[in-house]
Amino acid sequence: MHEMLTQVILNGLFLGAIYSLVSIGLTLIWGTMKIINFSHGCLMMVSMYISFWLWFIIRLDPLISIFIIFPLMYGIGCLFQRFIIMPILEAERHAQLLMTFGLMLVIKNTVLYVWRADYRIVLPLYADLFFRTGEIVFDAPRVIAFTAAIALSIGLHFFMTKTSMGMAIRAVAQDSEAASAMGINVYKIYSITCGLGTAFAGVAGALISTYYPVNPEAGTVFMFMAFVIMVLGSMGNYLGAMVAGLIIGVTEGVTAFLISSSLRQAVAFIVFILTLLLKPEGLFGRLLRR
Amino acid sequence: MYRKSELLPHQIHWIIIGILAALAFYPCLNPGEFIIDVTFMLFHYAYLALCWNLISGFAGQFSLGHAAYYGVGAYTAGVLFMRFRLTPWLGMLSGPMLGAALALATGYPTFRLRHHYFALASLALAEVMRLFFLSWDYIGGAYGIWYEPVLRYSWIDFQFTVDHRVYYYIMFAMLCGALLLTWKIRHSDFGLRLMALRDDEEAAKSLGINTLTNKLVIAAISAGLTAMAGVVYAQFTLFIEPDSTMSIWVTMDMLLPAMLGGLGITYGPVIGAFILIPISWALRTFIGSTLQVVIRGIILMLIVAFMPDGLLQIVINRITRPALIRR
Amino acid sequence: MTKRFGGVLALNNVSFGISKGEIVGLIGPNGSGKTTLLDVVNNFLDKDGGKVYFNGENVTNVAPHKLACKGIGRTFQVSRVFEKMTVLENLLSVPVRRESSEAKFQRVKDLLETTGLMPVIYEYAKNLSGGQKKLLELSRALMLDPDLMMMDEPFAGVDPAMLDRLIDLVEDLNKTGKTFLIIEHNMALIHRLCNRVIVLNEGKVIAEGRIEDIEHNPRVVEAYLGSGVK
C-alpha cells in the first residue's frame, strides 16, 4: 500500500514538473506585462499537436522535436505579444482578460474543428521502457520528461540570474518604468519574455505528448493547473512556480489515489480558494492589500 | 428631477414602451410555436445578459463563471421536482436563494483582493461545479435530469408543453422586471456607489463607500436573478445536464451580448442580445457549432479591441463630446 | 485632535501629531515616504507597527471607508475622479447619511458654485481638464464634511486662476475649523498656507516646526539638494 503511495507521489512529481514548466511561462508573462494569458494552455496544446504530427509523419522523437518546437513557439510568442498583447497593454483589466480568453476560444475550437476530439498519443521508441526497483516503476517517458523539465528550469534560473538579459527581464518585472529609465527597451523585453514563456509551454507540450493524450481539451486542464500554481507560487515568481508545480502535482496524484479520481481537478480549485483565503500573496510573496 | 444624467430624450422611453407593448400582444395573433420559441430564447438571453451586466457592467466585477448560478437554478428546480415531487415554483424561490448564497460565498474571500481575482475565482468555481455535477450520480451525473412530462399543461408543475406562449409571457415578464430593476439601480444611490467603486475602488473607499458590502449585494442580486432564469430554462427544455447549464459557453452567451451592447448601460445587454443571438443562430445553422464558437471568439476579440465598452457607449460618447454641454 | 503614529519599511518610526485647526505641510524630497504616510494613515497599506489616534480614538485598524465616515478626507496625487460618471454623479455617489436628498443636493450645488464647476455639471469626468479634475476630487471629498483633509499635491499642475480659487477654498474651510495635512513641493504655497511643516526624508522625520525656521535647517537643505551643496 505504501509502495503504491510512493509510486503515486513519484508520478505526481514527474507530472508536477511539467505543470511547473507551463506555469513558469504564465508567470513570466504576468510578471512583466501584468497580463494573465488565458490562451497559454491552448498554445501548449497546439505544441502537443505539433509534436504529435512531427512524430506521426516523420517519426521525429519528441525530445528532438523540442529543438524545433522551442524556437517555433518562441516565434509564436513574439507574434502573440506584438499583435494580441500590445494593443491591450493599456486597456482595462477586463478587456485584457477577455482578449486572451477570446483567443483561447478561437484556437481551441479551430483545433477541434480541424483535428476532431479524438485522443492521440505519441509512442516514441522508449514508450514501453521502464526501470523498476521493488514495486516502484520508473516509466521512461515520464522520467525523461521530468529530467528535461528540471534541466530547462535550472537553465532558466541561470539565465535569469547570470545573464544581463535575464536581469533585464527581472528589472522590468519589478518596475517597468524604472527599468525603462535605465535604458532598457521595455518592449523588447516584453517580446522576449512572451517568446520565452510560450516556448516553455511549447516544450512542456512536446514532453508530455508521450504519456498524456493529445486532445483539444488538454489546454484547458493545464491552463487551470498552471494558473493555480502561479497563484500558489506567488505571481511573477518563476522559482515559486517551479516549487508550487511539484507540490500541486503530488497533491493532485495523492488525492486522486486516496480519495477519488474524479475529484482530481477539484483539488486544484480547493488549493486555489485556500490560497486566496489564507495566503493570497502565495507562498513566496508580499501582497499589497487593496 | 435631481439626477439629470439622462442623455436620451424622453421620447426614447415611449418608443421602448411601444416596442414592449407590441411584443406583449403579438402572441395573441397565434404566430406558431417556432416564432414564439425564437422570441422566448431571445428574451431569455437578453435577460441573462442584463443580470450579468448588473455585477460586471455596473460594479465592474467581471463574473466569468456566472453559469454556475444558472445551473444551480436549473438543478434546484429539476431535483425538487424529480426527486421530491415538489412544484418547480418552489425552485423559483429556492434556486435564487442558493445562487445568491453561492455568490456571497465566492465573493467574500475574493472581493477583498484585487478585482480580477473575482473573475478568475468565479471561472474556477463554475468549472469545478460542472465537473462535480458530472460525477454526482444522485442528480444524474453526465446523464442529467430528464423530466417526465406530468401533464401537458400544468401550472403547478410549471410545464406548458402544449402552449409555449405561457413560457413566453413568463420570460417577457422577467425581462421587463429585470430591465426595470436595472434602471432603478442605475438611477439610485446604490447604483452610483457601484459605478464609483467600478471606476476607482480606492477613491470610493476614501469617500466612505463600503466597497465589500456593495459588491456582495449586487453579486447576490445578480446571481439570484440568473438562477431564476435557470429554473425557467429547466421547465422549458425539460432536460438538464451540466454541460448545457454550467459550462463556459453559457457564461459567454451572457457576456457577449452585454459587452457588445454596452457595459453598465441599462439597455445595452438587450440591444446586444437582439443583434448577437440571431447572428449566432444563423452561424450555427450554416457553419456548425464548433466554427460558430470560433467566430464568436473572434467577435469577442474584435469587441475588446475596438469597442470594449460596447455599442451604446460609443453612441453616448458621440452625444457627450467635450464641447457639448446639454440642458 | 492628535495623531500619533509610527511604522516601518518606507516609514521609519515616524511619529507626529496634528492639532485641530492647523494647516500642516508635509514636505520632503521625492521618495521620502510622504504619499506612503497618507496611505498608511488611511489604512490603504498595512502598518508594520504603530498606532493612529484620531479625535482621541484609536483608529489604527479601522477600514478606509469607515475612516472616511469618521471624518478623514483624502485627495490623491494623480486625481482619481470617477471617469465614466458625470460631475454631478461623482458628487452624488458619496454616501452621506443623516441627510435628506434635498439637503444633499443643496450641498452639491453649493460645492459646485464654490469651486466654479457648475457649468460642467453634466460633463463626464473624463472630459474635464486636469485642474477641473482636481477641483472635482476636492469637492467630492468635501461632501463628507471631513474634519481632517489629507491632500496629496493638490496644487500640482493647476493653472494660476484655478490655483487662487483652490487656495481661497482651503483657507475658508480652515476658518470654519477644518484641519489640513497637505503634501506639497511648492515652497511659496507652503509659506502662504501652512502654520507648521513636517519634513520627511527617507522615511524619517528630520525636522518639524514653522516654515521660516525649517527653511534654513541644514539637514533639510541637505535632504533636498544633496550633501554637495553648501
Topology:
The complex is a heterotrimer of chains A (290), B (327) and C (230).
Chain A: H1 2-33, H2 40-58, H3 62-88, H4 93-115, E1 130-133, E2 136-139, H5 140-162, H6 164-174, H7 176-181, H8 186-208, H9 218-232, H10 238-258, H11 264-278
Antiparallel strand pairs in A: 1-2
Helix pairs in contact in A: 1-5, 1-6, 1-8, 1-9, 1-10, 2-3, 2-4, 2-8, 2-9, 3-8, 5-6, 5-8, 6-8, 9-10, 9-11, 10-11
Chain B: H1 10-25, H2 33-58, H3 67-84, H4 88-111, H5 115-134, E1 145-146, H6 165-186, H7 189-199, H8 201-206, H9 211-237, E2 239-240, H10 242-245, H11 248-261, H12 268-287, H13 289-306, H14 311-319
Antiparallel strand pairs in B: 1-2
Helix pairs in contact in B: 2-6, 2-9, 2-11, 2-12, 3-4, 3-9, 4-5, 4-9, 6-9, 7-9, 11-12, 12-13
Chain C: E1 23-27, H1 34-42, E2 53-54, E3 57-58, H2 64-70, E4 72-74, H3 87-92, H4 101-115, H5 130-142, E5 148-152, H6 160-175, E6 179-183, H7 187-193, E7 196-201, E8 204-209, H8 211-215, H9 218-225
Parallel strand pairs in C: 1-6, 1-7, 4-5, 5-6
Antiparallel strand pairs in C: 2-3, 7-8
Helix pairs in contact in C: 4-5
What does this entry look like structurally?
The complex is a heterotrimer of chains A (290), B (327) and C (230). With 290 residues, chain A is mostly helical. Chain A is built from eleven helices and two strands, in the order ααααββααααααα. Chain A has a single domain (2-278), classed as ABC transporter involved in vitamin B12 uptake, BtuC (Orthogonal Bundle), CATH 1.10.3470. The radius of gyration of chain A is 19 Å and the shape is globular. The model of chain A has no long low-confidence stretch (mean pLDDT 86). Chain B is 72% helix and 1% strand. Chain B is built from 14 helices and two strands, in the order H-H-H-H-H-E-H-H-H-H-E-H-H-H-H-H. In chain B, helix 2 packs parallel to helix 6 (165-186) and helix 3 packs across helix 9 (211-237). The radius of gyration of chain B is 20 Å and the shape is globular. Residues 1-5 of chain B have low confidence and may be disordered. Chain C has a domain at 23-78 and 146-225: Rossmann fold (3-Layer(aba) Sandwich). Chain C is 37% helix and 15% strand. Chain C is built from nine helices and eight strands. In chain C, helix 4 packs antiparallel against helix 5 (130-142). Chains in contact: A-B, A-C, B-C. Chain A binds chain B through residues 36, 87-88, 91-95, 97-99, 101-106, 109-110, 112-113, 224, 227-228, 262, 265-266, 269, 272-273, 276-277, 280, 287, 289-290, and chain B through 56, 60, 62, 64, 109-110, 112-117, 119-121, 124-125, 127-128, 131-132, 134-135, 201-202, 252, 255, 259, 288, 290-291, 293-294, 296-301, 304-305, 308.
